[in-house]
Write a structure and sequence with these properties.
The chain has about 350 residues and is α/β, with parallel strands linked by helices. The protein is built from 9 helices and 9 strands. Strands 1, 2, 3, 4, 5, 6, 7, 8 and 9 form a 9-stranded mixed beta sheet that branches.
């Protein structure tokens, strides 16, 4: 059975206009095009009108819908608007600053041949802003220049520790993910108590949704990460500075505390415990060896790992002890399906 697809791209600022048009262009120009492209603008009337004008003369076999976020300001609300406007079997999400490889959608859809697959996500390769182009900043260390870095998750990219081949995972990365529309409709979508609002570096709404989907549909279902479904994710200059690294790590800790309230700490932190026990110590030893050998980038790398881990833990404690007002205050799961909206069966 051939499944149809809708691709959702959410945008919020004119500053990323060229990124947005490149992202949409990579979808429309891909080797495997979706039946529908939905572009959701998050509470920015000027950007909304410009985007509508841009696609007004669109001539393609892909239906393009441009709409305003009908929910609370923020990425989660915009994605929920995209889900409501999606008409096809599968709903894929691509960030407005990510460009899909030509075979991205084809690779992303392949694991859905298994009817137990609820969601599929792919890899994100960082496009660094440093000169010369593509040079990895010392702030984001890795074993080799072309290898995944342990802290690349900070900039929304695949990090060392993710599977190297297609495999089940707990949750997907927001810049490159997809779900069965029937599965999404069994929930109320992404929690709007979580997620990025403008430049505020919170997150984890994808984590909470993926955990909730599997609880609704049963442990026999799966969420799959397939690195062959690849996108290139542009890293803006502000994201290769200490200030962003620390703010993003702190926001991750606060967000994980909120997810732990919603789904329980075991589910919320299982992958993170393995990452802290197994991935980070190896990376720290490698960077310390480099530092002792006289390579200054080893000093920067080891410092980034230690500070990143420490600030993330601090953010988690802040979220547990004194939950900020914009985070859930109740210990029940957010967006729990009501009795009027029973969980839909997983279909092929």
């Amino acid at each position: 059975m051939t499944l149809s697809s809708s691709v959702v791209i959410c945008a919020y600022t004119l500053d990323r206009w060229l990124d947005l048009t490149a992202s949409a262009g990579s979808v429309l120009g891909g080797a495997h095009r979706p039946q529908q492209l939905v572009v959701v603008i998050d509470h920015n009337d000027e950007l909304l009108e410009r985007t509508r004008r841009h696609f007004s003369g669109h001539r393609c076999d892909v239906a393009v819908v441009v709409a305003a976020n009908a929910h609370r300001r923020g990425l989660s609300g915009a994605r929920n608007t995209g889900i409501e406007l999606a008409t096809e079997d599968l709903v894929a999400f691509l960030d407005d600053d990510a460009v899909a490889d030509p075979r991205w959608l084809e690779q992303l859809l392949a694991p859905y041949d298994d009817p137990a697959t609820l969601g599929v996500g792919g890899a994100a390769r960082p496009v660094w802003p440093a000169a010369p182009p593509g040079t990895r900043p010392r702030l984001y260390p890795s074993a080799a220049p072309d290898a995944r870095g342990e802290l690349d998750w900070v900039v929304g990219c695949s990090y060392h520790g993710l599977p190297e081949t297609a495999a089940p995972v707990r949750n997907l990365m927001g810049c490159n993910m997809s779900f069965r529309r029937s599965a999404l409709e069994s929930t109320t979508g992404f929690s709007e108590d979580l997620g990025r609002i403008g430049r505020t570096p919170l997150g984890c709404e994808e984590t909470e949704l993926c955990i909730r989907l599997r609880r609704i549909h049963g442990e026999a279902t799966s969420i799959v990460f397939d690195p062959s479904a690849l996108v290139s994710h542009r890293v803006s200059p502000d994201r290769v500075r200490w200030r962003y690294l620390l703010a993003r790590c702190y926001g991750e800790g606060v967000s994980k505390a909120a997810v732990a309230v919603m789904v329980g700490s075991d589910a919320a932190l299982a992958a993170e415990r393995d990452y802290v026990r197994r991935i980070l110590p190896r990376a720290l030893r490698r960077e310390l060896r480099r530092a002792l050998s006289g390579h200054w980038h080893g000093v920067t790398g080891s410092t980034a790992i230690l500070l990143g881990a420490g600030v993330t833990a601090l953010g988690y404690l802040r979220g547990v002890v004194g939950r900020p007002a914009n985070l859930p205050s109740e210990a029940r799961p957010a967006n729990q399906p009501s009795e009027a909206r029973p969980a839909a069966a997983v279909t092929g």
